[in-house]
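Researcher: Re-running this chain for the archive, since the previous output was lost when a drive failed. Same request as before.
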Amino acid sequence: MGNSMRIGLLSFGAAEFAALHETCTQEGHQPLVYAYSRSLRPSTATDDGAGHAAGRVAAALPAGIDLLLPGSSDGLGTALRGYGLDLVVCYGFSWRLPRYVLDIPRYGVINIHCSLLPRYRGPAPVLWAIRNGDPELGVTAHRMNEEFDAGPVLAQRAGVPLPDDVTPERLWTGLSPVLREVLRIALDRVTDPAAGEQQATAGLSHAGLMEPEFFTIDTTHAAREIHNQVRTCRFMGPGSAPVLTVDGVRRRVLRTSLTPVDGCRLDCADGPLWITASEPVGAL
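Model: Regenerated structure tokens:
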């Protein structure tokens, strides 16, 4: 382990900040400041629910740690510059950081991304892994540059399971220890400017946000594809269920089964799917 580094943490939830913070301190480093992105993109309106999330992060702040709620990249950069940081660690921070922010810490910015890069570059790797029916996730720590998820890889591990009934809470149980392991390796390597392997070009794919059409069920698609569509929306939260018209009534489909169970049978392009939980549109 090298000399202690002064570190800033950029993330999105109390548990996530805690995992980053604990790993840094266990490796002998000193987190000084957290930054939470209150909007999906810089210089846009605060997202619904961001105030509650920021409140939970603030309530769990360790003693002596500052919390930034930047509204713009300029504001984030100006604030971070005052901490004399050696490194910034980013996990789930949705903004693309400009070069002048990346250059503020002595050793740059590490990003932790939930895929085996270069697969699923972009803001929604977990959603695309569920949508595609992947059995597991990988985790990558890489040096951040001005492209999304394209910098040299410092550490990478597979093996985070994606069960059929995956939820954010269940995913975190398997993800947290792998994230911590990957971060530990990255912290050990980051001070060497030559450390990090360039990403391969083979296997590159992108994981953007779900398109509007994704939230409507199309029975001309395969049963497993629709099942994974429902799984993906359930992972996103109760307000994201895809809509299907059943007997003239528009319903939000909450849960499905690929094997016969009690419920409404849905005939898809290649066979049946069973709807085991749904509700009328408008019911929340």
